[in-house]
Task: structure prediction
Amino acid sequence: MGRLPQALDEAGIDVGRVRTVCFTHTHLDHIHGLVLADGGDAFPRLTRLLIPREELGLFRAEARLERFHDMAEPFEAGDRLGAHVDIIGAHGHEVGHSCFRVSSGGERILIWGDTVHVPSLQFDRPEVTWEFDTDQEQARESRLRLLALAADDNHFAAGAHLDSPGVGRVVRSSGSFRFEPL
Result:
């Protein structure tokens, strides 16, 4: 929430090298990361902006981001972004909410956006939904499916609301799940 520039700097990422940005969904706490607090572009050399197809209209309705509207390209579940990134549908939190599975060097990570909102509750009780889920039944199904995928296929998981550092492993635990941060 407003700390993306500092987080990227801390991670040693030069925003001038970022050319492509992909959004898991179009909620304002995500897409407004394109604009700095002073109104400037967070990614000054951005050339490609990928948005879930089902949410392209939502993105283009956001007046504050008008300068990015023409740059927005749709993607959908099942698409591949290059050789190492697959799109997995994770609908429910928002109509086009998506997960990116990145594979490299024999390891995989699921970048799942807002699949889990309350880690202290939803790993143990993944059936619990969140008031901001557009379709709670679909969000529940997506969360259960992605948790099982992460745990059973030994994927790392990264999400917006996970405990620091926001990346870790999901393991099965007594009929539910547990998150083990890195």
